[in-house]
Design brief:
The chain is 50% helix and 4% strand. The chain has 112 residues and is mainly α. It has one domain: Non-ribosomal Peptide Synthetase Peptidyl Carrier Protein, Chain A (Orthogonal Bundle), CATH 1.10.1200.10. Strand 1 and strand 2 form a beta hairpin. Helix 1 packs across helix 4. The longest helix is centred in the first third of the chain and has 26 residues. The chain is globular and about 50 Å long. The N terminus is likely disordered.
Length: 112
């Protein structure tokens, strides 16, 4: 008798499509978590959560954040997810371009 998920010493593996769907759901959950954090911490009452997508810009249209807001969000993310977002990072314009870009960066660098 084998343990569940084990056959002749090998674990069953999920097909790549299933892994992709799982990663997409996880990313969507992180995007939602970040959107909720941004809206809540910055009191963005005029940004309904249900209108936010991965493509929602953080600057200008979308969230309408300015550089001070971005610094505040960077500090919150650093504390919550266990890594430092530095103000002198040359990729900041890309990292903070959209909610999806920020979520992808957080997913790749988080320690918590």
């Amino acid at each position: 008798m084998h343990a569940p998920g084990v056959h002749d010493g090998c674990r069953f593996r999920a097909p790549p499509a299933a892994i992709g769907r799982l990663l997409a759901r996880m990313m969507n959950a992180l995007e939602q978590e970040l959107a909720t954090l941004i809206i809540g911490e910055l009191n963005l009452e005029d940004v309904p959560l249900e209108t936010v997508t991965a493509e929602t810009p953080l600057y200008g249209e979308g969230f309408g954040l300015d550089s001070i807001d971005i610094l505040e969000i960077a500090l919150l993310i650093s504390k919550k997810y266990g890594f430092e977002l530095r103000s002198d990072n040359p990729d900041n314009q890309t990292i903070f371009a959209t909610l999806g870009a920020l979520a992808a960066y957080v997913a790749a660098h988080r320690t918590k």
